[in-house]
Amino acid sequence: MKTGQYGWGWHSENKSTFTDKPILLDLGLVKLNLSKNMYSSPLDFASDVRLVFENAMLYNPKMDEVHGMAHQLLFYFEMLFRPIQAKLPTNQRVNEFSAVYEFD
């Protein structure tokens, strides 16, 4: 995701792209946590990725480019994560849910 068409705004080198409001998580930190085995399950990883995009949508107006990119990248992430989630034991599966979608 970092190198694609919308990749420029989703890693630590571009924190100012998001908003002046404090956002403590970006894809750079997610990548660091992943490389340090900080996630106890794929669901924890997915939760952080979703949070990055949901925060971008929450703190940027719908007409803003960042909001639109976050929406598209969250959709793309969910599409890629679905097969991984399907392989998890039933008690570890969660429904795909983004609170931001409720407001779109």
Walk me through what this model shows.
The protein is mostly helical. The protein has helices at 27-35, 42-59, 65-87. The protein is globular.
Task: Compose a concise summary of this entry.
With 104 residues, this protein is an all-alpha fold. Helix content is 48%, strand content 0%. Helix 2 (42-59) packs antiparallel against helix 3.
Gross morphology is globular
How much strand? under 5%
Radius of gyration: 14 Å
Order of helices and strands: HHH
- What structural class do you assign from the helix and strand content? mainly alpha
**Average of per-residue pLDDT values:** 77
Percent helix, as a range, is 40-55%
Helices, by number, come to 3
Largest sheet: none
- Give the termini distance in whole angstroms: 23 Å
